Amino acid sequence: MKTQSTNQQHALEHSAFDSTFIDKQLAKLIAVYDTQLAALEKAIEELIQADPILTPKVDALVKVKGLALLSVAVLVAETNGFDRVAGARLYQSAPFSELRGLRCRGEPVW
Fold first, then answer.
1. Phi/psi at 103 (nearest 5 deg)?
2. Using one digit for the tens of pLDDT, what is the confidence trace for 52-81?
């Protein structure tokens, strides 16, 4: 919703009509979203830090370039704290199983 409001604000800046009131309302709404997102990020970080088993796993993943705390938190939530992940089963699952044995220019695809 923040992105939507930011896009609307950007469109209003380049509009032919004067929309000062709407621009002010969107700025206030974006500020509320920023406050709420900061509170949620803090709560997520506190929940992760409170779990002694999960903390080292999350800390290791956050060190990977491109993975921030929120991305890792989504992974944790979708895998039930990494309990639903089985490396061998992931390799054997589709569509990867269809790629085994395939070659592109003589090199294995998978």
1. -130, 145
2. 988 888 888 888 888 888 888 888 888 877
